[in-house]
Amino acid sequence: MIRRTQAGFTLLEAIVALVVFTMGALALYGWLSTNIITLDRIRARQQMELTMHSALDLVRRTNPMETPDGQREVGNLRVSWSSVLLEPAKPNVVQSGRPGIFVVGLYQVSVRVSRNGQILQTFGVRQVGWKQVMATPVDM
């Protein structure tokens, strides 16, 4: 009797190999899916941060003494603000101690940022308002 040795895989070995491969692939898919969701959240947060910095820059360029309330639109982004006087207007003093050419007051500015009618963020910031009252500094 001649005995032959079989080469190759049996059906059971092939099924076990497929199960092990599938379990590994599912774990990899779950990990990849979680990373993609996290990446989308990071991108959305970065976009929100950029929007808020733009809104803050726009409000910082506004003089609350001249424009205590208002709104501006940039594309589909609307930034609206309202100011409340915290410290009454006083003459400013330059670094040398002499009076300056401005009166200044401290304001609490409430800012609301919206896009397409949906409010994205609200925040507050303190800001100095100013008004020029003299043409040139007073010499003393």
Would you kindly provide a written description of the structure presented here, covering whatever features stand out?
- It is a single chain.
- The protein is of the alpha+beta class.
- The protein has one domain (11-132).
- It has one helix spanning 11-60; strands spanning 69-74, 77-93, 99-115, 118-132.
- A 4-stranded antiparallel beta sheet has the order 1-2-3-4, covered by helices on one side.
- The model has no long low-confidence stretch (mean pLDDT 90).
Write the layout of secondary structure elements.
Elements: H1 11-60, E1 69-74, E2 77-93, E3 99-115, E4 118-132
Antiparallel strand pairs: 1-2, 2-3, 3-4
Identify the notable features of this structure and list them briefly.
140 residues; 4-stranded antiparallel sheet; rod-shaped; alpha+beta
